[in-house]
Predict the structure.
Amino acid sequence: AYLHYIFETLNVDADLLFLGNPVTDEFSHQFLGLLTKTDPDGRPNPYFDDVNGDGVTDGRLDEREGYIRAAYSEADETLGLGRELMGEKETTVMASSDHGFAAQWLAINARKLLFETTVHNTSTGMDVSVHPSGNPALAGSLSNCRAGQGAADLAKACWAGGTLQIYVNPTLPTGITYEAVRTAVTNKFSGLTDPGTPGRQVILKVLQKEELRDVDGTDALHPNRSGDVVVVSRPPYQFDAATAGQTIAFSQFFGQHGYLPDLVDLKHNINMHGTFVAAGPGIQHFSAEKTEIRAIDVAPTLAFLMGIPGPQNASGKILYSIIKGAGNLREITLLNISDWHAQLTPLTEAADTVGPAFTIGGSAFLKPWFDVFRREARDGSLTLTGGDSFGGATPPISNFFGDKPTPPIMGMMGVDGEAIGNHQFDRGETYLRTELIPLASFPMLSANVVDGTTGLTPAEWSPSATYRFGDVKLGVVGFTTEATPSVVFPGNLGPFEVRPVLPAVNAEAARLASKTDAIVALGHEGATGGTLDNPTGPLIDIADNVLNVETVIGDHNDQQVISFRPNGVLVTENRGKGIRFTRIRLVIDRSHGSVVYKTADFHKPWTIGVTPDPAIQAEIDDLNAQLAPILGAQIGTATKFIPRADQCGGGTGRTCESLIGNVVTDSMRTAYSGIGVKFAITNSGGLRADLTCPTPDLAGDFCPAYTPPPFVITRGQSLAVLPFGNIVVTVDVSGAELKTMLENGVSRMPAVDGRFPQVSGLCFTYDIAAAAGSRVTSAVTADASGNCTATPVDLTAGSTHKIATNDFMANGGDGYPNIYNRSTTQDIMEEVTADYVTASSPLAPVVKAAPDGRINCADSNGATAPNCPTLVPSP
């Protein structure tokens, strides 16, 4: 009735029709177990044709099977009507089941089992129940996905069919750890037996959260959805409709889903495999036996047939073998990491907002991740990086060796091309050209960094590169951020100029247009705002105005981007340091040499269940062995974690006062207070890592495994914070010059920018709604403990203040005034910080709320943008 109403009464002319039919699901729930004679082990089913299990058969086998068959007939009729109303001859149809089914008849009481599970509290010396606030004798204890009467539950249970997800309470009492709860729960369910049927397997598998990264080929590790422990039962057991007070009892269901995807036993009515049927104008005849079809392939194939972008987070391939006219199509896969900064070893990341952190990224793990997608690439692949992969702002494992280990390791990872970024000039253009680029087995690309005299690129890099994939050719044009001269040390560019990106890219793309089938622009410029699919910033301005370019791949800023622009250009960018990578697919019709489809998806390269590439891991192990005696040395401690992130939650520490910024600037001011230094200022872009060692420990991080507090600080962490080798300089500046420095520091707010200042010895206030250059409204001195006083800082031209800053800023870096010619060179900035950490441990830095913070934002225009970021004071 509803289909007739939509098409015949409303006269909808639909391009896409979604049809569903729930009756197959519901009838399977009700009848499947009643039609199944034995369990998978061959034991008799007491409910076979006996709904009461009383030993008296019902004689209704044919009738109940008829219900299930009728449900499928109804589903077929619904599909048939939909095809008829859409126009049978013109409509391509894809039909799939959302899940499989298994016959079952017994239910497990998950809440009762949690009540019986105990964990030892090391603080009290007592064992406590995981579910103390629920009474297993009460029906209320069966409530699905609820905690008990209060906050005392250590975990809660959520279930559907054959799967139980158990979530550990994120606020556990002192003396009880996350791992202790997980271990107790895992042991309880792993050892579950059924007294009513001795020897029958009840639980098929118990997985801990990190194992969900790969369940029969499916990535099931999703934020705030995956349990900390996941229990999968074995038919005939499941978790719905349990009986209060009984561990295992009659289930009141006779068919369920939620078992492992590859569970198949047709003889006993168990089939977790999905069904996929495709037919219509876009589909050619194919042999189901010879065509591997996975559930994850359905959405990409459907998206391709409709000409819409595929899923943004999904794996899966386009099934060209079932598509008519696919013989002329060539699919080129591009794999990309952004702003990698030689993160050779893994980092950690929480899978969700309440759970633990797991390791992610790292060169030895990215290689096998890339290999998975390379093997799946239909007609070949390229692995591309967009700049700053080496040459500065890198961890000690690379930086300590002048970044020379990184280009060869990138070659081992299979990198095919790198755009030139600003940090690759951190040691100067000569070092880049003569020491680093010769170590790379792949071309370096930039169309807009050229010799200022000739206007040409040097021999060491090219404006573009061309790659051949059988009978199609792909051009890649490189570009470098126009901000490079202001963010590298003055003089480091030598004879080279950084020219505007867009004219350079368009000119090179025009030159390649007649020689290639598709062109990609790869470069070091990024989005600075907006959302994943609606970003803003310089990268988007480039993408919106390029010519002859299909895809723009960005870099430079820590932002995830997949966006289709109004001009048809696909633009992508990743989170930095290899914690994300993007797969882009360009489908080229070779008969007329043009791109007919493009899509992109991004992925989290968890190390869980991944075997690191042995050759790369051996290189990393060797580097770590050389550095461990030096960088593993503990230089101090802290009472709290001291992150790179600022107190407004900005991960790169570039929007608010930060604990690490306070420590570094305090070290600069303290070191030279004896010669009259009153204030210190440094740019947030120079602070590149957390100061305290991570917990849990990371392999190759030059930190011990430890349990805080106190938080450990090693020399390796100090070098990771300050990798550039900057020098502290001291200089007398007028109050007006000091104000100019502060003004420059906040001039880009609320945008995230490396020039944002961190200060010591003073507290200042700026109005974010005022015009840039006129934002700083006041400044007062701070006492030795960092507390703001009532004594104003004279910001006029008639006053003089001795300050400590870094040589990059003093030379005009990040837009600061150039005062280097009258500065006094002091000591290496990292050594000054390391000495301060040792002398001042245990460190206990704080950030206070306005107006008592070192950097206070005011907003004179109320709710109208721009608005101050929200500060969360540190404890």
About this structure: The radius of gyration is 31 Å. Residues 61-86 form the longest helix (26 residues). The first strand starts at residue 93 and ends at 96.
